[in-house]
Design a protein that fits this description.
12 helices, about 40% helix, binds zinc ion, 3 domains
């Protein structure tokens, strides 16, 4: 069981602009690298560590929670940049079809097939390997009506080969006049938690979209992340994840920028997959120990120690696993915003 620090600090919340936060926990640059890149022997480990310290201008970063809207964010509130993602995602590990893709696809299907909204224009921000747009286009939306952004070369080249334009740009840099008021639908799946400059982002989304546009956002489920935190598994590690959203945060930011929350859902998830995920994350989260095990050269000994540590993790996780039966602890939360 882990306890938050809960030290009170005066920092402005990016979502509701309240100026009081509690510090939940702190992360070192080495922990931050290890979280996204486990191979400590790889020279990119040190490159990433140095790059993160440049981003933070220090060696540690706090994660704080607004006392008003309970938005959790990194302080310094700095997002990972293109260089960071190039180092991290030189290999591809995309998850395929996801829950948030399916519920969004069903709404788009309804808009196009049942409500006869033909010729929609769609923008997906942070498209990964294009799993979502390849399903939606050309079935529901012509390829020439879809625009994607993606930093990873692997993901971007695959989407471009498929015939959909994919740019390696921050969405706030897409300001060519042809895109002003252009889009009916914007999708941001597992992207918003990586971004800072939230007001500038929503101002730009307003610039990019037509009246009554639709915005679909999926981010990690804050309830699951809180559960993980207090059970010793930190998953929201800056500069990768710098914002932990909840329904109230979405309502606050939507209202300020002229949107409404049309629908909000938490991912339903089976108990077994939740339990396996939790144990594996718990295994990895003892950073110092797992690092030492990985460095052991003699394979049978390394495997034996891995098995012993995994067994201990399973045993230590049993009390927490019991609580994972709750329907509120699925991986993701999803929100459907409508421009008013
Ligand atoms: Zn707030």
């Amino acid at each position: 069981m882990r306890h938050y620090k809960l030290t009170l600090k005066e920092i402005s919340c990016p979502v509701c602009h309240c100026t009081e936060v509690h510090i939940l926990y702190s992360v070192t640059s080495e922990e931050a690298v290890y979280h996204v890149f486990k191979d400590v022997e790889d020279q990119r480990f040190l490159q990433l560590k140095s790059h993160i310290e440049t981003l933070w201008q220090r060696q540690t970063c706090d994660v704080v929670r607004c006392v008003n809207c309970r938005f959790c964010f990194a302080y310094p509130y700095v997002a990972a940049d293109k260089r960071f993602y190039e180092l991290v995602y030189s290999r591809s590990f995309y998850a395929g079809w996801k829950w948030e893709y399916q519920i969004t696809y069903e709404i788009l299907y309804d808009m196009v097939i049942h409500s006869n909204q033909k010729n929609l224009k769609l923008l997906e921000i942070g498209s990964g390997d294009g799993a979502f747009v390849k399903k939606v286009s050309p079935e529901l939306i012509p390829k020439e009506n879809v625009l994607c952004t993606e930093y990873s070369n692997y993901g971007r080249s695959g989407i471009n080969r498929y015939g959909i334009t994919c740019l390696s740009k921050d969405i706030r840099e897409i300001n060519s006049i042809e895109y002003k008021g252009n889009f009916d639908v914007i999708c941001m799946f597992q992207v918003l938690e990586h971004m800072n400059g939230i007001d500038a982002l929503f101002e730009h989304l307003n610039w990019l979209t037509r009246k009554q546009a639709t915005l679909f956002i999926a981010v990690p489920n804050f309830k699951q992340r809180e559960f993980y935190d207090i059970n010793g598994v930190l998953e929201d590690i800056p500069p990768m994840h710098i914002g932990r959203w909840n329904k109230r945060c979405f309502e606050t930011i939507a209202k300020r920028h002229g949107w409404i929350v049309a629908k909000y859902e938490i991912q339903p998830q089976g108990f077994v997959s939740k339990a396996i995920r939790f144990v594996l994350f718990r295994y990895e989260c003892n950073y110092t120990l797992v690092k030492q095990i990985r460095r052991i050269r003699v394979r049978p000994i390394r495997r034996l120690l891995k098995a012993m540590w995994l067994s201990l993790c399973v045993l230590a996780s049993l009390p927490a696993i019991n609580a994972l039966g709750s329907s509120k602890l699925g991986v993701s939360q999803w929100v459907h915003l409508r421009k008013v």
